[in-house]
Amino acid sequence: MTTSTNFKFLLPWCAAVVTGILMFLGYAGFDHFYLEWFFLVPLLWALRDQRPARAFWLGWLAGIVGHGGGFYWIIQMFQQFAGAPFIAGVFGLLLLAAANGMVLALWAWGTTVLTRDRQWRVLWVAPVLWTAIEKLWPEVFPNYLGASQYRMAHLTQIADFAGILGVSFLVVYINATLFWVTLRWREQRAVPWGAVSALAVTLMLVAGYGEVRLREVDRKLATAPTMTVGLVQTNRGAAENHLAVELMQKEHREMSQELVAARKPDLVVWPEGVLSVSLNSRQGSLPTWALGDLHTPLLFGTCLQIREEGETRFCNSALLADGSGRILGSYDKTVLVPFGEYIPFGDIFPQLYAWSPYSAKFFSGRSVEPLKLGDRLLSVSICYEDIFPTHIRKLMRGGRAGRQPEVMVNITNDSWYGNSVEPMEHLALASFRSIENRRSLVRGTNTGISAIVDPAGRIVSRTGVWTREVLVGRVPLWKGGTLYGAAGDWIGWLCAVISVCLIAATTLSKKARA
């Protein structure tokens, strides 16, 4: 094989690697968001004249590189969350990257199948396929492409009717147009002005919609009722939940007492898993000394041991107590972290828990009812539940009575991931729940990033990462719904139907010609 032949063989694979690198560098945390506007161009270039099978492998390579670089913190998560050795963490990262990388593999395959005979189709095939796969492919840690644009408020407001998937569609559409313009210019020395004009008009419409919605949100914010919320971030990591329990709880009480004395908030929020509580029912009271004698309502995370339905259950929960310690409501985490909060198939094979002694065995929550603080309704989620749009949308429906919450609260523990980009990725993904539901989001964490996000998805205030501090802010109480709240991921389902029909029609057409 000659040097020229070797180069031609390697070039597509190098292009796939470049796409993967651009992908994670452009994502939230690394924050070079503009890279996502053209990260797919090298891969699309590599897919020209490729067979669908080879396109699949090229896409998978790009996906593995992209997710491997973006999710490097998984190694530490496996070490801290499940007590796994370093090599097992590396293996876990490779498995996760390979699983999530299937999004690019399937997208590359489908794009090749549908555009081999008509390259111009890439303009609409690429975003339609991507959106369909992003909706349907199951991911342990969903990482929607649209989250990369969390700082671009004018581009993200479309999430109130199209969700974060709509922003992903837009990003891939930009990529496809840039590729098509580059291809036409290189091969024909002609600019496809129709495609350029369509993209320009689309961006103007999206930015114009964003401007209108931002002005509307700001106008409502000026007159909306508010509540003052204080967040306590002690900078105590997950290990100290077990090794320094009394010290950690003491620091939460003392920092909260100082916060209440200085700012007199309506609600104090402690992060996930601060206290361990044993209850026989979900009513009753807790000793005020354990809550800091704050005489102020407190929402806190707890490892809850409760006797229900004739058995003792352990739940990762949030409890809301008033100033006298009376329990006003509770929420049990529904979306559990595999290998950390439960082991898949562990009920069938109990020995799995003996092999992974650091893994908990929590029961999944069932209630979607908001918590009531006086005449205010709070939607509460725990840990990474706030990155699942469908789950938060379910919570925002207001339960049996349909009384929609006026603010969203998330309590989490991101210390498992070390000093990495994960806390920013998590916050960026979570911020889209504010746009989709037009509610403020209050996030309390133990080591950062604690934050207050307004109904336009803008991070109004935040703490640092691995810092000890409190965060106090006036949070607007909002009413009303959104199209996304009513229709959900309609754009994902629509793109899925279109994709399936197109691939089926193309396959049948080729068989008929054979």
UniProtKB/TrEMBL annotation:
Enzyme Commission no: 2.3.1.269
Transmembrane segments: 7-27, 33-48, 55-75, 87-109, 121-138, 158-183, 190-210, 490-508
Domain (CN hydrolase): residue spans on this chain: 227-477
Protein's name according to its UniProt entry: Apolipoprotein N-acyltransferase
Entry annotated with the keyword Transport: no
NCBIfam families: lnt
Pfam families tied to this protein: CN_hydrolase, LNT_N
Pathway annotation: Protein modification; lipoprotein biosynthesis (N-acyl transfer)
Function description: Catalyzes the phospholipid dependent N-acylation of the N-terminal cysteine of apolipoprotein, the last step in lipoprotein maturation.
Species per Swiss-Prot/TrEMBL record: Geomonas propionica
Compartments in which it is found: Cell membrane
Keyword Membrane carried by entry: yes
PROSITE patterns on file: CN_HYDROLASE (PS50263)
Family membership noted in the UniProt record: Belongs to the CN hydrolase family. Apolipoprotein N-acyltransferase subfamily.
Alphabetical UniProt keywords: Acyltransferase, Cell membrane, Membrane, Transferase, Transmembrane, Transmembrane helix
Topological relation to the membrane, as annotated: Multi-pass membrane protein
Domain of life: Bacteria
Record CDD domains: ALP_N-acyl_transferase
